[in-house]
Amino acid sequence: MTPRTVSRKTTATRSLLAAALCWLALAGASLPALAQVAGTVTQLSGPMMARKADGKVRILALRSEVESGDTLITEKNTYALVKFIDNSEVTLKPATTFVVEQFAYEAGQPDNDRASFNLVKGGLRSLSGLLGKRNKEKFSLKTPVATIGIRGTYFTAEYLGAGGIDVPVAGRPAAPALAPGLYTSVTTGQIVVSNAGGTLAVAAGQFGYTQAAGTPPVLVPNGSGLPFTPPARFGGSTADSPAAPADKAAGPDCVVR
Q1: Local structure of 164: helix, strand or coil
Q2: pTM for the model
Q3: What is the pLDDT of residues 231-241, one digit of tens each?
Q4: Calpha distance 201→219 (Å, rounded)
Q5: What sign does the dihedral 47-95-89-139 (CA atoms) show?
Q6: pLDDT digit string, tens, across residues 181-217
Q7: CB atoms within 10 A of CB 150
């Protein structure tokens, strides 16, 4: 074999290798990025689905993974508890739409923390985890009338759209309609509800109400009366202002912006 023949073979081999590497790079670029696993469904009392950003829908079950970008939708009789990878927990009420816009957490990389949620409608009970305690400024829960930032607390939030709902009251044949808006209650810590209309601090044991994005939040003497009654196996309280479980009581404050 002459040196010229060896040189030609070497050149051909290099060309084929370069072409293969180029094809792999293009193929990789065309593949969709894998979504970040944000948490897991640990309790579920009925049907719930997750809608992807591309419109695809999947039915969730116990131990189903929840990913960044998922819109979680519970049916009218479904309670669901999602435990996130930083040990925070969110319990969703029936008929709730809740978006996990972005969630990223790594124990050794706090600079990369990201948590952005959106409560489109319905209600939830939230217990913050490690991300909220070490990077409160990187956690946000949006609602149609306020944005909620969390740090180490236990609270409920419920948003009612136009028309409100009728709340049953014992001893009455019918109850007055509950006004639309955002209803909040705090068990431990503190929240601060802010929007274009103003800012309001709500301490443990207090209740807040925000009618609209441009209306100042106000304290109200009682809770909304909206039921929050997940099955007993979910843990926690069934009251409007939840009592913290024994192993989750007391924690730093919470900021709602």
Answers
A1: coil
A2: 0.76
A3: 999 986 544 54
A4: 9
A5: positive
A6: 999 998 988 888 889 999 888 888 999 999 999 999 9
A7: 29
